[in-house]
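Hi support team,

I submitted a single chain yesterday and got back a structure, but I'm not sure I'm reading the token output correctly. Could someone confirm the output below corresponds to the sequence I sent? I've pasted both exactly as they appear in my results page.

Thanks,
R.
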Amino acid sequence: MNKITSVLAPAKINLGLKVLPKRQDGYHGIESIFSTVSLCDEIIIELTDEKNICSVKCDSLELPEINTVSSAYNGFRKVSGSDLPGVNVLIKKKIPSGGGLGGGSSDGASFLKTFNKVSGVNLPYDQLQEIAAMVGSDVFFFLDCDESGKGTAIVTGRGEVVQTIPRRNDLHYLMIFPGVHSSTKEAYSLVDEFYESGRNLEYPSLNELEDIYNGPVENWNFVNTFTSVISKKYSKIERAILDLKNNGALYTDMSGSGSTVFGVFASEKDVEIARNALSGSWNVCSCY
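Hi R., thanks for writing in. Yes, this is the structure output for that exact sequence:
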């Protein structure tokens, strides 16, 4: 067989991320805007003659045996109830692992959508969502992105409630990768401690998010719950935010549970000026 397909898996950023207190089931609800950016992994999928075998490799890091791509494949097999073509998958990694940019979820979703086509099974959308629930909450958002992989949405629940909204094409980003890592488990634990101490933050309401997103960037008042607790533990995050502000960013915050910090700029030229100023001190990446 040996049919080879290549697909891009985009990163996402969170424009605001309200993490709600832990629910009785142990999970946290969220309120956020997710938006893809041009930073992408490349997923190379090779169909093989072996049945029901999924091999996943990454060019730059050692993946756990159970990862988002293998989980998507195994979920696909379970939901379809049929034998599947085997696959060899190579991930060419550009999105930093554990950076709050959804790279693993995007890889899983991009594989899932592509495999659904090239395998010839063609599961309906509701069954792809069933598989997404087996892989990870952010997979739902990436499933709803358009054919080119772009998308913006208001995301609620645990991440499974996705309301797509028109994506702005006039936003220019500079990302800083501070080189610190906070696990998702640690991040949520710090949020739980924050709420248990009786503290809280002022957030825009859920029904305001789309209007804020469409308004002038300099007026954005999104809030990321994780930023306040993670940046207290990792001072590099506070410094990265300050450096972006001091170099022309109209808005800056941490994405997801971190540690990637991003700034939004008025133009591509402004991004390049800031990039040149900051690249000696930080690992940076411009995107749109």
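A quick pointer for reading it: The first helix runs from residue 68 to 80. Let us know if anything else looks off.

Best,
Support desk
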